[in-house]
Amino acid sequence: MAFTPLTLTGSRVVLEPLAHRHYQGLINAVRDGELWNLWYTSIPSPEGMAEEIDRRLARQAEGEMLPFTTLDARTGEVLGMTTFCDIDRATPRVEIGYTWNRLSTQRTGTNAESKLLLLTHAFETEGCASVTFTTHWHNLQSREAIARLGARQDGVLRAHSRMADGTLRDTVVFSITAPEWPAVASGLRHRLDRAR
């Protein structure tokens, strides 16, 4: 199980290893919808983007995270960020998280294809036994999106972590296991084909 930087390419999106050259594109993307103002999630503000890039790259250097910049496959426009995180090489398993996309591309199939690319790599290249997703209890949009992928809700971790504003987050945990992956993949591909 390697989880080393690589580029994953689909028909809608390209996932490139996060780099400082994506800085301005990420600022433009996060301004589309002022996503940092959502209280139930942690999305960097334009002023905090450089620090967030540095944080993710430092965690990559420590082997804890593999961050990507999401690009539009046709135009090259930066859409957002996503990562492999909480990498457990012994099991093996991984979490897909710290994901956000510009507001104008939400519900266009770009997120579904990003997840298809990441899940395919996790299960078919890295040999993961499971892939996990977590989100805030109050982030209904994220919970619904994760469920639409085909992930099953495992449970809720009450008072699991503290948010930047000091409130406690109840974390909803979802997962997909290796035996479930073929059906999930088929469902995602069918969904993307219908959206073309």
Automatic annotation (TrEMBL):
Ranges where the N-acetyltransferase domain occurs: 12-152
Keyword Repeat assigned: no
Keywords: Transferase
Domain of life: Bacteria
Keyword NAD: no
Entry-linked PANTHER family: BLL6696 PROTEIN (PTHR43610), N-ACETYLTRANSFERASE DOMAIN-CONTAINING PROTEIN (PTHR43610:SF1)
Record protein name field: N-acetyltransferase
Lineage: Bacteria, Bacillati, Actinomycetota, Actinomycetes, Micrococcales
